[in-house]
Design goal:
Blueprint lengths: L7 H10 L3 H14 L12 H18 L1 H11 L3 H5 L6 H25 L2
Length: about 120
């Protein structure tokens, strides 16, 4: 059964524990590039730095490239119903919550690929 993480820190800790952290970074890079939002997180990036940089990227996309942001969510396959539940009154908090949803979906892809080959 897929372990649903409570927050970003637990998610990244699970990825490291299961030796899937590098696969998670590769999946994020792949999907961002599919959405023409070039991002190239180095495989050596720390979990804390990944969390910060992903949050900043999502924040900038919401603010300056909204159509591309929506396309990214579509390509990653983030649940529309989960996005609709978020409160968009504070962009910083919204970007943090969306970053978690992005990470959660990417983690789900990596985890399922490993466990159901």
């Amino acid at each position: 059964m897929f372990p649903i993480p409570e927050n970003t820190d637990f998610l990244l800790a699970d990825a490291e524990k299961e030796n899937l952290y590098i696969s998670l970074i590769e999946q994020i890079n792949k999907d961002f590039n599919l959405a023409n939002e070039g991002i190239d997180f180095p495989l050596s990036i720390s979990p804390d730095e990944l969390k910060i940089q992903l949050h900043e990227k999502i924040y900038r996309m919401i603010q300056y490239k909204f159509a591309e942001y929506l396309n990214l969510l579509y390509i990653i396959d983030v649940s529309e119903s989960e996005i609709k539940k978020l409160d968009g009154s504070d962009l910083v908090i919204l970007a943090e919550q969306v970053s978690f949803l992005v990470l959660k979906r990417e983690w789900q892809k990596v985890w399922f690929r490993k466990n159901f080959k």
